[in-house]
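User: My instructor asked us to take a sequence, write out its structure as tokens, and then describe one feature of it. I'm not sure where to start. Here is the sequence I was given:
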Amino acid sequence: MNKRRTEYLKFNKKDREKFLNEVIKLSCRARNILESEKIESYDSFYYRLFVQSNPYDFTRTRNSGVKTRAEIINLMRTILNTGGKYNKELEKYDAEMSKLSPRARSAIINMGLSLFETFYYKYVIKKETIMIAEVRNVGIKTRPELYSFITNFGNYLGVDVTEKKPKILFNTKNPGIPFIPDTKTKKLFLKEFNSLSASTRFKLCDMGADSLYGFYLEIISEKSQFNLVLNKYGEKNLLEILRFRTLLSDSIKEIKNQEFNLINS
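Assistant: Let's start with the prediction itself. The structure tokens for your sequence are:
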């Protein structure tokens, strides 16, 4: 890895004054966005953009159009990319992003990685792993493309971005105990999934629920948004999915109760 890359995006106290001077030059709308998002100081701006658990790339900021977002990104790069020190990497990142399919590009945006800077901080500085199964609305066809984009660009930057294998946490009285599905549950999932109609299987694939972990996350778990979008499904598809959910939930609860009793016996 190029040694100078280790200097990218470092927080520098000396940049606080420079940040405030640049903020004055922004349009009224851009300054209002900084105020409404509580990122008027350089410290809060830097923390929100990089340090918090989910990268913030301004794509989901309310009342922020394309021009305003571009202003705020330019503010960031005026501070962090002085002299165009990472222009080469930035241009390559944007070029690789443009090659992605619409679904993969949407997933990257949902992960807060539409900017080179947020990608760099997450995988080079924080050295995080990736967990494709946790990215919402990513189907089986999009996952390899997403994984390839992240790992290949990581390799370009000289880092090995690894994938974290998922654990299912069954969120009941004791959420800290991981649920490890047994052979019976795995076979049940495959049998029931293959018995679904083609249209229902397609819908589950499209939302990333075509694996045991994905189905648990998207359909069963307490974090699932499935109950909020029931009206998107036709009656036949909905009945199939609800029946499938009941069967799998009962199987998981049975195993979980056995594990809980064993641990507390």
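For the description part of your assignment, you could build on this observation: The beta strands are 168-169, 178-179. Try explaining in your own words what that tells you about the chain.
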